[in-house]
Design a protein that fits this description.
Blueprint lengths: L3 E3 L1 H11 L6 H12 L3 E4 H7 L5 H9 L5 E2 L4 H16 L6 H8 L4 H12 L2 E3 L14 H7 L4 E2 L1 H7 L5
């Protein structure tokens, strides 16, 4: 069975726009179930992004997801992959403006770390970002995944791939 690593926007967009916690509790129960079965995980950098705001989402995460859900990226194998992802970004300076590369490589920005973690663990990356191969101002996760042959899907496709309903 495939395993999936989730971007922060999988939680944020779901909570704010698609499946508010107070309205779509079955979606959140499904996420908890998938997390408990270790089918989905995320990384420490995503946790940092999610906890920038103290809101209903952070409270839900604190009470429903085990601390181990957010995997440590400060391990040698992930750091090695991160270096490869950063090198890729730098090698594309003919496409991306310097600010896009700087933003992508920012230490607290989860994007490059997510790609590195997915690459190291052979997991599918889940994000609501959409490919934009001609973008010059933002490096998009799906485009980096494509460069490294990492499967990348959105939340709905992940649920379909898992044959999950709620």
């Amino acid at each position: 069975m495939s395993k999936f690593v989730l971007d922060a926007n999988c939680f944020i967009q779901a909570h704010r726009q698609i499946y508010p916690i107070d309205v779509a509790s079955s979606f959140w129960k499904k996420l908890k179930d998938l997390a408990d079965r270790e089918i989905i995980v995320s990384i420490d950098k995503v946790r940092g992004e999610l906890f920038e705001n103290e809101d209903e989402l952070t409270k839900w995460i604190e009470t429903h997801l085990d601390e181990s859900f957010f995997k440590d990226t400060e391990v040698d194998s992930v750091l090695f992959q991160y270096q490869q992802v950063v090198t890729w970004a730098q090698s594309n300076s003919d496409q991306y403006v310097p600010r896009a590369i700087e933003d992508f490589m920012q230490y607290d920005n989860a994007d490059a770390w997510l790609v590195a973690y997915a690459k190291e663990t052979n997991q599918t990356l889940v994000t609501y970002e959409v490919s934009s191969p001609n973008s010059q101002t933002k490096i998009k996760i799906p485009d980096v995944c494509k460069a490294f042959n990492i499967p990348c899907v959105n939340t709905i496709q992940m649920l379909r791939d898992l044959s999950e309903t709620f």
